[in-house]
Amino acid sequence: MSGVEVLRAHALAAVPHGFLTRRGGVSTGAVASLNCGLGSGDDPAAIAENRRRAAEAVLPGAKLAGVYQVHSPTCVTLTEPWPDEARPEADALVTDRPGVLLGIVTADCAPVLLADRKAGVVGAAHAGWRGAIGGVTDRTIAAMIALGAQPRRIVAAIGPTIARASYEIDPAFPEPFLAEDAANARFFTDGPRGRPHFDLEAYVAARLAAAGIGRVEAMGLDTYADDARFYSFRRATHRGEPAYGRLISMIGVEIAPPRS
């Protein structure tokens, strides 16, 4: 649709979902082209059109709902779509309502989409390092279970995020992770400049597996390294760019066709 590029995970093949790249939108300048971030400072009309194109490419006719992301572990349960101006502060959301798309935006953080197809329950989480260590995926799974999902039936996919090779950190950064579990040392390696690097994708995947999720797919796509396809906060910062766009990732429960 209009050149929109939708990346799909094998684990979620039977569920309407998509990790959108930056291609196929109408935004211009530093945030060209499919910028879907409501808080990015972009033209609101362009953002609205981009979000409309993205939603139509994933689940035509569905209503898109997101949250006001604050790098928290908070997850909310959606019973009916809320207007963009009334988005609750949270970093994950779940639903069992057909015809709704859950959307989260990222620009280096890990987008996580989850589904228990048999229960008809889906979830979406924005997992930056703060939310990840705070348990945003654990709370998302708990909210899905409250709607009837079962951990062993839940499948999850981690979309485009900053890769370990691109994620240089301060020497003190690993401390809370190591305090949580000494085994978390495996997610940190020494970089070429003598500073540690963090594997956010692997850490999030490990949290999902530890929660008993039946299948976890890490797509291995580096937002920082591929500026043609992905927005990146860190890349924009390093380049001194005036703004950065937001990628959107979505998942929904398909509307059952009417019985004949």
Describe this structure in words.
The protein is of the alpha+beta class and 260 residues long. The chain has a single domain (6-163, 199-252), classed as CNF1/YfiH-like putative cysteine hydrolases, CATH 3.60.140. Helix content is 22%, strand content 22%. It is built from six helices and 13 strands. The protein has helices spanning 44-58, 129-134, 136-146, 175-180, 200-210, 233-239; strands at 6-7, 17-20, 63-65, 75-77, 92-95, 100-106, 110-116, 121-127, 155-158, 188-190, 196-198, 215-218, 247-252. The protein has a six-stranded mixed β-sheet with strand order 4-5-8-7-9-12. The protein has a five-stranded mixed β-sheet with strand order 1-2-13-6-3. It is globular.
Q: Helix- and strand-based class?
A: alpha+beta
Quantity of strands, as a count: 13
Strand order of the largest sheet: 4-5-8-7-9-12
Kindly report the CATH topology. CNF1/YfiH-like putative cysteine hydrolases
Task: Summarize the model shown.
With 260 residues, the chain is an alpha+beta fold. Helix content is 22%, strand content 22%. A hairpin with a 4-residue loop joins strand 7 (110-116) and strand 8.
